[in-house]
């Protein structure tokens, strides 16, 4: 499966569904974003079970602002509607593959318990 363009019209629907969604925040003028794109595309073809979304931060400034994206590219991983990773910087293929493996292995019940306990502390 190739990448999916995420916009304000479909972002919440796509990222709140069951399963894993990776989001690449990028812009056309961004050199590192352009260099990262083929790596992201290649892994999207190797992992058809994952949604690989792309947010053009110029066209979708509301989404970029919502997630306080200050540097691009930024990679975000969402699993079963929960953001489990977000970090600026283009990842080499091996690091992106490692991130995918880690996200896929998460025990989401445990993640939800941890999130619940953190929200009670604050």
From TrEMBL:
Transmembrane feature ranges: none
Annotated site, Deprotonates C-terminal active site Cys, chain positions: 24
GO molecular function, one term: protein-disulfide reductase activity
Keywords: Disulfide bond, Electron transport, Redox-active center, Transport
Residues flagged as site, Contributes to redox potential value: 31-32
Family matches, as InterPro entries: Thioredoxin, Thioredoxin-like_sf, Thioredoxin_CS, Thioredoxin_domain
The keyword Electron transport appears for this protein: yes
Disulfide cross-links: 30-33
Organism domain of life: Bacteria
Active site: 30 (nucleophile), 33 (nucleophile)
Electron transport among keywords: yes
Domain Thioredoxin: 1-105
PANTHER family xrefs: GEO12009P1, THIOREDOXIN 2
NCBIfam families per record: thioredoxin
Family: Belongs to the thioredoxin family.
Name of the protein this chain belongs to: Thioredoxin
